User: What shape does this take?
Amino acid sequence: MQGVLYVSHGSRYADATAEATAFLEVVKEQVNVPVQEICFLELASPTMKQGIANLVAQGATSIAIIPVLLLQAGHYYHDIPQVIAQQKALYPAVSFSYGQPLGVQDRIIQILAERIDEAIPEKSPDMKILLIGRGSSNLQTVIDIETIVCKLKRITTLHYIEACYLAACEPSFDKKLQATITEKNSQIVLVPYIWFTGFLMRHIHKKVTEFRGIEKEIVVCQHLGQHSVMHEALKDRVIEAIS
Assistant: This one.
């Protein structure tokens, strides 16, 4: 019997875990698979091991592991495969397949354009947009984010779009925001390339509050969140993994 395990990042914040769970419950309804479970890599329960055990207990003989990740990074290449290898040894009669992160997709970049339009219906000619990535020690992350920046420029026809990162990559979000504030622009628009709320979104908002009182406007766009296209994109990854 086929099973599906959705592996989300996890957060110490209850609202972030709830948002991820609610999102994945929607996807589960769209996937015609008998048994499906949700788990988290860290900071929340159930763990991957518990999720796999739950599927096996329900009779799953084939399990598709679905990384609920935007891009290929450390969790995709190291953390999740390590657990899969351990569980293969524990359940030799169960077959495992491993899906792909969402990756760079035009339909997701279109969501970023929508988030900008929602936040700034009337745009000033000199507005500066910072696309904020999570960051990773994997070089592919920077390549992917820069590709997204280029595609976002084409979709929006906005020219002043640059990337920055919350961890592990340069330029850092904190330094880039500080530098951008000193530039000659009337608006700064922060576009989080982040799936769910949590610590990173809180950090972005906290950093913005430090600059209250300056003359230029700083706007934070909504994260990707519960957009229907995100549901569709993850569903497609599930179908690929179980094919």
